[in-house]
């Protein structure tokens, strides 16, 4: 069967660079349409789909008979792919036409439809549509279904249609028409602006301007946000004040615009008021004393007993105090003390209209606010925020009606067929406008809850979902939706309309709420998907936050989709023990069974001639202790791979795709996976042979080592290497119908994973053997004791075994040997000056790691530039080894340091090359 490009080679570095860069692109990117967790970058999805369809040149020996001609053709294909993955080329007709031509050439002008059964944030179906494929997006979650409808189902239905609003109806763009979804975007903008004006007419009195002191310019200013602190009564009976539960009193750290809050005490009345000061000044100590709900009273100094704050809040006795007002100034943010008007206006009742008061789910890992009385959705919002969101939600239906009436007036068919029924007429168009306006409300909710805090570094609002959780926030920022700054309606509307314009709005797109374990009826298609990662993210629990507001606006438009009060959870394929009475085993069984059924369905759908691609990024290791031998495997990987292999697939390729932001909350300071591993799978032949454990190990030794070398050379992060090695290892295991243990029983995936990890250790041990004697000693000492003390006798025995001596290493300045105690010197203690001729790889590796920690790429490049030979590369390879050791030992900071060095290695090399070119060679005349 013809091999596809993805099964042979890819320009991985270019794809990963574009995927990583994409995370910093905001306006027009689908990630800004509506929040979804762990989205795949478009560049990665586009590259995977295209290279899964395009033949590798080796599939056509009649056209490319030699390795030389095949490589030349691959380079031509790489050129197309490297252009294709760039964000700027997402809608470039010339680039897309060249890519589509290759797909047609490799599929006999009959490209398959694509299904993503776990569509989520929609990157994969969107990119399938962009490449001209018929795209099918399925998901159980109604919020994910709506996101996908907004991206691939609605835009093509109204593509090329001019806007219907009175202002735009007479206008044409410079090219003489409305392209793609431009007309739809213009209408969303128009009716969104109408919504804002109408909302302000109804509730604008709740958002008064603030008086500006004369010394700051006088007059009035529009409020950006009100800064609040939650409060409880001080537990000291002699005090009894409403003590603030603030985590900080700092408002702004911006140079030249520093500001902070100072509490003022009236001991007679037990009242606390708040004054804002500009400048650096002495910031008062915050009442939060430690992690969790640990505070002290700023008036009397009483420390709250354990669980006191929790008990008070659960009894409904948690209040709030207005500490500051942030306003729009002529030259930046103004930070003002709160006045009585701002207090009184904020103290409004809950709205008379229906608002979401459903209970938050029980999710002790990710939803922490329920422990403090915020256990229903209305309690996540202030009364003013609830009033604003219910007002905007009600206006969606009114905007839909206006858009429908204007569509009729503009000559659009008045067929009364609903959008959910496949309508193309005026009613469907009005409802389509309403879908996007409901997304604006979702974005307002994300920036407009009492879980939002104020970022004093960048002077803006943090959103509710700064991470994949709903945390407890003690001091929160309440945004003004009618401002022109952070968290305002105009900004949210702008994000949405810019996305609409960028959607392909071409080819057929079908989106359904569907359980991946059931048969959707599709056959002879390609499948590419990003399934749930075991127990990493509870999508259903988190997405309830958006669902309750989306339902307010869209339950009449999509009545079946929004028939339930909350997102369906029982069928969601995640291994969360709290849904199974705390049983990890039941949760695992549920996930394993569900994933197997899903993979069996995918097997039914998939074509024989196009590989299935599955993204996976789960990182969890379990260690079995057997006869002093530690064997490591990953539960998440085991479950996923078992399902794939049992369903009848063999793994034919694996690619580490750099798909996560390095600055995301869950990754900062941790060894979270930076890449997703894309598994390339084919249906295993029915007559596949069986193998023995012994023959499997022999094949692994033969095939795994070159694959590992290739991964290291591709500069994959150490944090990803062990997970990436699973691919080529399982490729060997999965090509057989079964592998038999010595006793004749079938080898489990878990056993195969343990063998692969053992071979990974052997590979690194062999690399240790290539090190100089002094470095081998240091690696062994580090493995045993890190930088801690060891007795001289033990160190001396180890040194002799490595053909070196403690005295020589002490003289070299890499270890301390005093009074019978030996220890490796830490990076901070090592000699800072480097020798370009340094032969001791351990020392060079530690110096580079320290340089990366303190001076970044530039400092490392200064060290690497004058080094002769391959020692710098060997130091980088040692960093891989040391990362693996640190991870196994649980030394998180150590692992992070080595990982950072390797991840930056390409940049270090590039900068070192520049420095080498800038340094003139000295010519000797003698």
Write up this protein.
The chain is an alpha+beta fold. 42% of the residues lie in helices and 14% in strands. It contains 25 helices and 28 strands. The model is unreliable at 622-630, 661-673 and 922-926 (pLDDT under 50).
Keyword list:
926 residues, five-stranded antiparallel beta sheet, 28 strands, 42% helix
Topology of helices and strands:
Layout: H1 12-22, H2 42-53, H3 67-84, H4 93-106, E1 114-116, H5 123-130, E2 135-139, H6 142-157, H7 182-203, E3 210-211, E4 220-221, E5 223-233, E6 242-244, E7 250-252, E8 259-266, E9 271-278, E10 288-290, E11 294-295, H8 308-314, E12 319-329, E13 332-336, H9 340-346, H10 383-409, H11 426-447, E14 454-455, E15 460-461, E16 475-479, H12 489-502, E17 509-513, E18 526-529, H13 539-554, H14 584-605, E19 612-616, E20 622-626, E21 629-633, H15 635-646, E22 649-658, E23 675-683, E24 690-692, H16 693-713, H17 718-734, E25 738-740, H18 749-769, H19 773-785, E26 790-791, H20 792-801, H21 806-812, E27 815-818, E28 821-824, H22 841-864, H23 871-889, H24 892-903, H25 905-918
Parallel strand pairs: 1-2, 1-18, 2-17, 18-19, 24-25
Antiparallel strand pairs: 3-4, 5-6, 5-12, 5-16, 7-8, 8-9, 10-11, 12-13, 14-15, 19-23, 20-21, 22-23, 26-28, 27-28
Helix pairs in contact: 1-2, 2-5, 3-4, 7-10, 7-11, 7-12, 10-11, 10-13, 11-12, 11-13, 14-15, 16-17, 16-18, 17-18, 19-20, 22-23, 22-24, 22-25, 23-24
Quick gist of this model?
It contains 25 helices and 28 strands.
Terminal CA distance reads: 65 Å
What overall form do the CA principal axes indicate? globular
Strand residues, percent = 5-15%
> DSSP helix count?
25
Rounded mean pLDDT score? 91
Question: Helix share of residues?
Answer: 40-55%
Please, what is the oligomeric state?
single chain
Main β-sheet description? 7 strands, mixed
| Strand arrangement in the largest pleated sheet | 17-2-1-18-19-23-22
* Strand element count: 28
Instruction: Give the uncertain stretches in residue-range form.
Output: 622-630, 661-673, 922-926
Structural class: alpha+beta
Radius of gyration: 31 Å
